[in-house]
Write a structure and sequence with these properties.
By secondary structure, the chain is α/β, with parallel strands linked by helices. It has helices spanning 2-30, 34-58, 64-76, 97-109, 126-131, 135-139, 152-155, 161-178, 197-211, 244-258; strands spanning 80-86, 114-120, 145-148, 183-186, 215-216. The chain has ten helices and five strands; from the N terminus they run H-H-H-E-H-E-H-H-E-H-H-E-H-E-H.
């Protein structure tokens, strides 16, 4: 009888030892070691570094000062204020080229890098922008990057190119006074079929940008020629803004510029 009790006790102790050992080992292997935590942190750091390298590659077409801003912002995990501003040529609806560009920027660079604002002052001229001090709302956004269509089509036949360029200087000076480090990019409004004086004014804007060391984005390269009747399909009937086709070609040009991929 005693033997049976002893044997039973031994069996119970063995089973208990196995169970305790099993739970101890399970707990031990499930608890991360300092080395594993450090390794995981290094992997995350390496992944973030690779992601930043990719995003910096996307920016290779951009001016050097903008590339530096992007690199610093990625490293310091800060946001850049990117403001897109202009006339009716800069539509704020979901199908407009600004929204197309915004979508691609956020997709390529991530949601955290750019704080993107789209400001469309339809029907304004450079003269009325100054008189109404509309530049203040742009300056208040503290742009790091300003993509500006300077109302050149609205000014056509109303203000005169010399006055337009003088007004642009005053507008940009006001914005720069509030934001000395802003990177400014200029672009024309959409082209028009058969226009005679307007293309000359756009050429003057391009020359102005070059002389004043502003980046000039010539998206007209992506449109049908101004003497090609197909161009009529790329603007609305009243010619005040781009049509669906116009938004597409304008957006494609800017996306290719701001998000450089292999072969671009």
């Amino acid at each position: 009888m005693k033997k049976r009790i002893i044997v039973s006790n031994v069996v119970v102790l063995c089973i208990a030892s196995i169970i305790v050992g099993h739970f101890y080992w399970k707990q031990k292997i499930s608890k991360p070691t300092a080395a594993s935590v450090e390794s995981s942190a290094e992997n995350i750091k390496e992944d973030n570094s690779k992601q930043n390298d990719t995003r910096e590659d996307y920016a290779k077409n951009l001016p050097e000062d903008v590339q530096k801003k992007i690199k610093t912002a990625l490293k310091e995990e800060k946001q850049l204020n990117f403001v897109i501003w202009g006339s009716e040529s800069v539509p704020s609806d979901q199908n407009g080229w600004p929204e197309k560009l915004k979508k691609e920027l956020l997709s390529a660079y991530g949601d955290e890098l750019f704080n993107i604002s789209i400001v469309s002052d339809a029907e304004e001229t450079t003269h009325s922008v100054l008189n109404k001090k509309l530049y203040k709302k742009i300056a208040d956004k503290k742009p790091d990057i300003l993509l500006f269509e300077p109302f050149i089509l609205n000014d056509n036949g109303v203000v005169g190119i010399d006055n337009t360029l003088s007004n642009i200087t005053d507008i940009l000076r006001k914005i720069q006074e509030a934001n000395p480090d802003v990177s400014i990019m200029l672009q024309p409004a959409h082209p028009l079929f058969g226009a005679k004086f307007y293309p000359k004014e756009v050429d003057a804007l391009k020359q102005y940008a070059e002389e004043n060391h502003f980046t000039y984005l010539n998206h007209w390269e992506n449109w049908p020629d101004k003497e090609d009747e197909q161009l009529k399909q790329y603007v609305t009937e009243d010619r005040s803004k781009p049509s669906e086709k116009g938004n597409q070609v304008w957006g494609e040009y800017l996306i290719k510029y701001f998000v450089a991929k292999d072969g671009q």
